[in-house]
Structure formats: C-alpha cells, structure tokens
Design brief:
Shape: globular
Largest sheet: 7 strands, parallel
Radius of gyration: 19 Å
Distance between the termini: 36 Å
Order of helices and strands: EHEHEHEHHEEEHEEHEEHEEHEEHH
Strand order of the largest sheet: 3-2-1-4-5-8-12
Strand content: 15-25%
Number of helices: 11
Helix content: 40-55%
Structural class: alpha/beta
C-alpha cells in the first residue's frame, strides 16, 4: 500500500510509520514538527526504513492540497495530526479547533477529491463521551469502578463533548462518520483510550503513563489531580499499530466504522496503582503532590473492545505490567532524549 500518516513524527505516528515501512508499505509522513520530541522522533524514523517526509500543517488547506497532488493516490490515510491536551484546549480553544476539527476536515476533503477509495483511519478519543456523570463510579481503596458497566463503555454510549478538546475531537469524529454516510468514503473512527509506549515524550497534561515513567526514572516529583483513584484501560503502542494495519489491509473496507479501542477490562490501572508499580521497579518512593480535580476528568474510563474483537479478530497482547516494564526500561536506556 501507499500510506499517508499525518502527525507521523508524533508518538503514535513514528511507531506506525516504522511498522508499516518495515512491512513493505510505501510510507509518506506529514508533520509540522511542533510537538516536543518530534524532531528526535523524525531523526530516529529516517534512520530506519526508507520513508518520505513532508513538512506541513493540516491547518493549511493549500499545504494539504500540495501534499495530495504530489503523492496521491494513497491506499490508506492514517490521520493522527492533532492537538492532544485538554488543558491546552482550555487555554487556547481556537488553536485547538483549527488543528483538530478544521485540520481533519481539510484531510477528509483531500481524500474525497484525490483518492476517494482510500481507507481513512481517524484517531479519535474517549473524551467524546464526556465525564460520564450519569454512570455511577464506586470508590474502592485504590480505584474507582463503573458499577453498571462491568465490560466497559461501548460504542452505543451517548456522545457528550466536555472541554474544548472534547468538542474539537468530537466534531472531527462526526465528520469522519458522516463522510462515509454522505460520500461513501471508507472511514474508520477509533475512539482511543490510554495509549502508551516507546518514543512517547509525555508531559504533565498528556501521556500520563509515559510522564509517570519519566518522573520515576529521573527522580522527579509528580502532580496528581484528584485522589489518584481514577482508572483507565491501557493499550500498548504495538497492539494499537497492529489494529491500524489490520483495518487498512482488510478486504472488507470500513464504512463509517466506529470502534472503542483500549486495553479493555483486563488491562486497567489507576494512577495510584501505576505509582505503586513504578515504585517497585525503581525501588524508591516517588514524591507526589495532590491538587484539585480538573474539569471534565473522567473518574473511570474503560473501553468495551468487544466490537473490535468480533469484527476484526483483534485484541491486546501486551499486559499492563509488561507494557509499563517495557516503557520504563526504554526511558532509562534513552534518558538523554528527555533533556530538552
């Protein structure tokens, strides 16, 4: 396949690009290199398989058109470019909107014009479901649990955009769904839970598993907003990329397919549980400062991944402990990368 990966120098993007290229696909990476660590990721990426890189911004329709006129038709477009932090969206909602919502619309329009038969895979988020205030969360010693949803949140959960980030990602999510309905495009919308793994330069307001690992490895203090009992299902990057490839190679092309994607009920951790796990790995206490809850934060989100399992035969292979051990070891071995 010829594959375009927008945001291809980001954490998910470089892992996806490296895997697709190693599998023999023709890969084009498009990125504006604005994210912390993006330049280091690109250097690593270009040192491996032959991959073409185009510097550009999804917010510019002219730059997107130039990309497609130069390299299309693509067989698959993996759209990962975006603004990824709730806190940043609250500070600058206009920049958040133009990157996530308008940038996605630009990408959809280019695909519709230049390669309408391509599989279009959109990296959405569990934040489109909001803070789930109507779903009671019972508090236990080290975690919250969703008492009504033992298998997690499935795709029938009503959308409830909460925060500018939720709104911009949710708007893009719905555009992708509707472009399949109105234009017959082959879109797949993956509402992703907590993705973690190699080459994730986590900071405090996003990439929390990586940030915890970095802080633990470097002896830095951590800030936890809330009581630390909030729970997420964790999905290691290798498992996510395997799902991307499975969708792109499927003989049955998606048509507005919506999937909740995460580690599922068998791969959940609370912040306190991750903290305890890392303290065991580094054999020392980690200093923690607790601050008030942040607006829109979900007490619990666990994805019900049964649709992905049923329709695509996909499921996570890397357990939470195994994945955290892999990431923690990688952080320690590559500590020089974190001296920005």
């Amino acid at each position: 396949m010829r594959v375009l990966i927008t945001g291809g120098a980001g954490f998910i993007g470089v892992n996806c690009a490296r895997h697709f290229a190693a599998s023999g696909h023709d890969v084009v990476v498009f990125d504006n290199l604005s994210r912390q660590g993006a330049q280091q990721n690109l250097f690593w990426l270009q040192g491996g398989q032959p991959i073409r890189f185009v510097k550009g911004d999804v917010r510019s329709f002219l730059e997107m058109k130039a990309l497609f006129t130069s390299f299309s038709p693509f067989d698959a477009v993996v759209h990962l470019a975006g603004q990824v932090a709730v806190t940043s969206s609250i500070e600058n909602p206009l920049a958040d909107f133009t990157t996530n919502a308008l940038g996605t619309l630009h990408c959809l329009e280019c695909v519709r014009t230049y390669c309408p038969k391509a599989t279009f895979l959109y990296s959405s988020t569990n934040k489109v479901y909001g803070s789930l205030p109507h779903r009671p969360a019972a508090e236990q010693e080290k975690r919250f649990i969703l008492t009504e949803l033992p298998d997690g949140v499935d795709e029938t959960e009503p959308l409830d955009f909460h925060s500018p980030y939720g709104c911009s990602k949710g708007a893009a999510d719905q555009y992708c769904h509707d472009y399949a309905r109105i234009y017959g495009m082959h879109t797949a919308i993956l509402r992703q839970s907590c993705i973690y793994g190699y080459r994730q330069f986590g900071i405090e307001d996003q990439g929390w598993v990586a940030w915890f690992c970095i802080a633990a490895a470097q002896g830095k203090a951590l800030t936890i907003y809330g009581n630390g009992k909030q729970v997420r299902d964790l999905l290691f990057i290798d498992d996510l990329v395997a799902l991307y490839e499975r969708i792109c190679l499927s003989a049955q092309k998606p048509n507005g397919l919506v999937l909740n994607v995460g580690g599922g009920v068998n791969n959940t951790l609370s912040l306190l549980e991750l903290l305890e796990m890392l303290e065991g790995m580094c054999a020392k206490k980690i200093n923690v400062d607790f601050k008030p809850w942040r607006s829109g934060d979900q007490r619990v989100f666990v994805a019900d991944i049964s649709r992905a399992e049923k329709e695509l035969g996909w499921g996570p292979k890397v357990s939470c402990r195994e994945g955290v051990e892999k990431l923690f070891s990688w952080v320690k071995e590559n500590h020089v990368l974190f001296n920005f």
